[in-house]
Design goal:
The protein has a two-stranded parallel ribbon. By secondary structure, the protein is mainly α. It is elongated and about 60 Å long. It has eight helices and two strands; from the N terminus they run H-H-E-H-H-E-H-H-H-H. The protein has helices at 2-19, 23-32, 45-52, 60-73, 85-102, 112-116, 123-134, 140-157; strands spanning 39-42, 79-82.
Protein backbone atom coordinates (compact mmCIF):
# COMPACT_ATOMS: atom_id res chain seq x y z
CA UNK A 1 0.00 0.00 0.00
CA UNK A 2 2.80 2.43 0.86
CA UNK A 3 4.70 1.59 -2.31
CA UNK A 4 1.57 2.12 -4.41
CA UNK A 5 0.91 5.46 -2.70
CA UNK A 6 4.49 6.67 -3.23
CA UNK A 7 4.49 5.62 -6.89
CA UNK A 8 1.13 7.29 -7.53
CA UNK A 9 2.33 10.46 -5.86
CA UNK A 10 5.53 10.47 -7.91
CA UNK A 11 3.61 9.81 -11.13
CA UNK A 12 1.20 12.61 -10.36
CA UNK A 13 4.07 14.99 -9.62
CA UNK A 14 5.86 14.19 -12.90
CA UNK A 15 2.68 14.54 -14.94
CA UNK A 16 1.84 17.88 -13.33
CA UNK A 17 5.37 19.16 -13.89
CA UNK A 18 5.47 17.95 -17.49
CA UNK A 19 2.03 19.25 -18.38
CA UNK A 20 2.70 22.59 -16.69
CA UNK A 21 4.55 23.95 -19.71
CA UNK A 22 2.73 26.99 -21.02
CA UNK A 23 2.66 28.03 -24.69
CA UNK A 24 5.20 30.79 -24.10
CA UNK A 25 7.74 28.34 -22.65
CA UNK A 26 7.20 25.89 -25.50
CA UNK A 27 7.71 28.68 -28.07
CA UNK A 28 10.94 29.78 -26.35
CA UNK A 29 12.23 26.22 -26.34
CA UNK A 30 11.38 25.85 -30.02
CA UNK A 31 13.08 29.16 -30.94
CA UNK A 32 16.17 28.55 -28.81
CA UNK A 33 17.40 25.71 -31.00
CA UNK A 34 18.44 26.30 -34.58
CA UNK A 35 17.57 22.71 -35.30
CA UNK A 36 14.47 21.29 -33.69
CA UNK A 37 15.39 18.67 -31.14
CA UNK A 38 13.80 15.29 -31.56
CA UNK A 39 12.59 13.47 -28.49
CA UNK A 40 12.30 9.70 -28.44
CA UNK A 41 10.15 8.07 -25.77
CA UNK A 42 10.36 4.34 -25.14
CA UNK A 43 7.21 2.94 -23.57
CA UNK A 44 7.04 0.07 -21.14
CA UNK A 45 4.37 -2.59 -20.95
CA UNK A 46 2.23 -0.86 -18.32
CA UNK A 47 2.04 2.37 -20.29
CA UNK A 48 1.11 0.48 -23.45
CA UNK A 49 -1.58 -1.52 -21.68
CA UNK A 50 -2.94 1.75 -20.29
CA UNK A 51 -2.96 3.36 -23.75
CA UNK A 52 -4.78 0.37 -25.22
CA UNK A 53 -7.22 0.27 -22.31
CA UNK A 54 -6.50 -3.38 -21.62
CA UNK A 55 -6.55 -3.09 -17.85
CA UNK A 56 -7.15 -0.74 -14.98
CA UNK A 57 -3.92 0.67 -13.64
CA UNK A 58 -3.08 3.57 -11.30
CA UNK A 59 -0.82 4.86 -14.10
CA UNK A 60 -3.67 5.06 -16.65
CA UNK A 61 -4.28 8.72 -15.97
CA UNK A 62 -0.58 9.53 -16.24
CA UNK A 63 -0.28 7.62 -19.51
CA UNK A 64 -3.19 9.49 -21.04
CA UNK A 65 -1.80 12.81 -19.80
CA UNK A 66 1.54 11.91 -21.38
CA UNK A 67 -0.12 11.24 -24.74
CA UNK A 68 -1.98 14.56 -24.48
CA UNK A 69 1.32 16.32 -23.78
CA UNK A 70 2.98 14.58 -26.73
CA UNK A 71 0.17 15.78 -29.01
CA UNK A 72 0.46 19.31 -27.61
CA UNK A 73 4.23 19.45 -28.11
CA UNK A 74 4.42 17.61 -31.42
CA UNK A 75 3.78 20.74 -33.47
CA UNK A 76 6.96 22.37 -32.16
CA UNK A 77 9.11 19.44 -31.01
CA UNK A 78 9.13 16.19 -33.02
CA UNK A 79 8.46 13.32 -30.64
CA UNK A 80 8.85 9.68 -31.63
CA UNK A 81 7.11 7.03 -29.58
CA UNK A 82 8.88 3.67 -29.56
CA UNK A 83 8.57 0.22 -28.09
CA UNK A 84 11.38 -2.32 -27.85
CA UNK A 85 11.01 -5.95 -29.00
CA UNK A 86 11.36 -7.33 -25.43
CA UNK A 87 8.44 -5.11 -24.40
CA UNK A 88 6.32 -6.48 -27.25
CA UNK A 89 7.25 -10.02 -26.17
CA UNK A 90 6.28 -9.23 -22.57
CA UNK A 91 2.94 -7.85 -23.73
CA UNK A 92 2.22 -10.93 -25.83
CA UNK A 93 3.10 -13.22 -22.92
CA UNK A 94 0.73 -11.32 -20.62
CA UNK A 95 -2.08 -11.36 -23.19
CA UNK A 96 -1.54 -15.08 -23.88
CA UNK A 97 -1.62 -15.87 -20.14
CA UNK A 98 -4.88 -13.96 -19.75
CA UNK A 99 -6.40 -15.72 -22.74
CA UNK A 100 -5.39 -19.10 -21.35
CA UNK A 101 -6.89 -18.19 -17.97
CA UNK A 102 -10.34 -17.66 -19.47
CA UNK A 103 -10.36 -19.95 -22.50
CA UNK A 104 -11.99 -22.83 -20.63
CA UNK A 105 -14.14 -20.74 -18.29
CA UNK A 106 -17.83 -21.37 -18.55
CA UNK A 107 -19.44 -18.57 -16.57
CA UNK A 108 -23.11 -17.73 -16.64
CA UNK A 109 -23.72 -14.19 -17.96
CA UNK A 110 -25.39 -13.39 -14.63
CA UNK A 111 -22.18 -14.23 -12.74
CA UNK A 112 -19.69 -12.37 -14.97
CA UNK A 113 -19.64 -9.22 -12.80
CA UNK A 114 -19.14 -11.32 -9.69
CA UNK A 115 -16.33 -13.25 -11.38
CA UNK A 116 -14.64 -9.99 -12.47
CA UNK A 117 -14.74 -8.79 -8.86
CA UNK A 118 -13.38 -12.02 -7.41
CA UNK A 119 -9.77 -10.89 -7.14
CA UNK A 120 -8.95 -11.36 -10.80
CA UNK A 121 -6.97 -8.45 -12.14
CA UNK A 122 -5.42 -7.07 -15.27
CA UNK A 123 -6.47 -8.06 -18.75
CA UNK A 124 -8.55 -10.99 -17.50
CA UNK A 125 -10.69 -8.68 -15.37
CA UNK A 126 -11.15 -6.28 -18.30
CA UNK A 127 -12.26 -9.19 -20.49
CA UNK A 128 -14.80 -10.41 -17.91
CA UNK A 129 -16.16 -6.86 -17.40
CA UNK A 130 -16.57 -6.48 -21.17
CA UNK A 131 -18.49 -9.76 -21.28
CA UNK A 132 -20.63 -8.65 -18.34
CA UNK A 133 -21.39 -5.35 -20.07
CA UNK A 134 -22.61 -7.23 -23.13
CA UNK A 135 -24.63 -9.67 -21.05
CA UNK A 136 -22.99 -12.67 -22.70
CA UNK A 137 -19.58 -14.28 -22.64
CA UNK A 138 -17.35 -12.89 -25.38
CA UNK A 139 -15.19 -15.45 -27.14
CA UNK A 140 -11.63 -15.27 -25.74
CA UNK A 141 -10.32 -15.74 -29.26
CA UNK A 142 -12.33 -12.78 -30.55
CA UNK A 143 -11.06 -10.58 -27.75
CA UNK A 144 -7.40 -11.60 -27.43
CA UNK A 145 -6.37 -12.77 -30.91
CA UNK A 146 -6.33 -9.32 -32.56
CA UNK A 147 -3.81 -8.20 -29.94
CA UNK A 148 -1.70 -11.32 -30.34
CA UNK A 149 -1.70 -11.30 -34.14
CA UNK A 150 -1.62 -7.55 -34.80
CA UNK A 151 -0.09 -5.96 -31.71
CA UNK A 152 2.43 -3.88 -33.62
CA UNK A 153 -0.24 -2.65 -36.05
CA UNK A 154 -2.53 -1.72 -33.18
CA UNK A 155 0.27 0.17 -31.43
CA UNK A 156 1.16 2.00 -34.64
CA UNK A 157 -2.49 2.96 -34.97
CA UNK A 158 -2.15 4.56 -31.54
CA UNK A 159 0.93 6.52 -32.59
CA UNK A 160 3.59 4.22 -31.10
Amino acid sequence: SVRRYVLRTMNAYFVVRASGLNDQTIEKLAKSATQHPTAVLFFDTNVLFSLLGLYENPADEGSLALMHLVQKLSSSVPIKLRVLPPTLDEMKRAITASQEAVINMRISPKLLNTAASAGISGITEKFLRLSAGRGATVSPGDYFEPYLKNLLTILRGNGV
